[in-house]
């Protein structure tokens, strides 16, 4: 192995370790473990399909940036995004909402998402928050219904 290859491999290992520490700090070791276990369970073809789906999800969302945040098309695209996130870990509503901030405020995510459309990070901030608001409303209504059934 060439010296430059060893340096590159070492730099990648350091970056992975730093990324893991960041995920652990933001979302907890349980979510990190869940994500790692899910990713390791996929074969190379499934991993390739996930990368392709990621690109397709964000491309579709970028194409909907002029839609109203509560439009049917956008809500369906947000459900697809939610299902995609769920392939790695089961996200709580808090985590979903947190992703809206990460996409908008973290320069690494912002740069990656901007390749689909420069406005995508800011659009996703609103779209995700609206989507999570609607999920919270559904959850609250279910809780009210449950309480009413008990009385």
Description:
The chain is an all-alpha fold. It has 2 domains: 1-41; 51-150, Antibiotic binding domain of TipA-like multidrug resistance regulators (Globin-like, Orthogonal Bundle), CATH 1.10.490.50. It is built from 7 helices and no strands. It has helices at residues 3-27, 29-41, 44-63, 72-86, 93-105, 107-114, 120-150. Helix 5 (93-105) crosses helix 6 (107-114). The chain is globular and about 70 Å long. The model has no long low-confidence stretch (mean pLDDT 85).
CATH topology of the largest domain: Globin-like
What is the CATH superfamily of the largest domain?
Antibiotic binding domain of TipA-like multidrug resistance regulators
* Gross morphology: globular
The DSSP helix count reads 7
Measured by DSSP, the beta-strand proportion falls in under 5%
Question: What is the CATH level 1 assignment of the largest domain?
Answer: Mainly Alpha
Total number of beta strands: 0
Structural class: mainly alpha
Largest sheet: none
Write the element-wise H/E pattern from the N-terminal end onward: HHHHHHH
Report, as a whole number of angstroms, the end-to-end distance: 71 Å
């Amino acid at each position: 192995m060439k010296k430059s290859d060893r340096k590159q491999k070492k730099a990648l290992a350091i970056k992975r370790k730093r990324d893991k520490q960041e995920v652990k700090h933001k979302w907890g070791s349980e979510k990190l473990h869940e994500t790692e276990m899910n990713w390791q369970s996929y074969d190379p073809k499934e991993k390739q399909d996930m990368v392709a789906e990621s690109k397709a999800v964000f491309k579709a969302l970028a194409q909907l940036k002029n839609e109203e945040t509560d439009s049917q098309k956008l809500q369906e695209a947000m459900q697809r995004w939610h299902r995609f996130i769920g392939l790695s870990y089961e996200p709580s509503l808090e985590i979903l909402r947190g992703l809206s901030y990460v996409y908008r405020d973290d320069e690494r995510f912002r740069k990656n998402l901007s390749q689909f459309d420069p406005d995508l990070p800011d659009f996703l901030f609103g779209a995700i928050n609206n989507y999570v608001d609607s999920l919270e409303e559904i959850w609250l209504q279910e809780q009210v219904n449950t309480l009413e059934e008990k009385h």
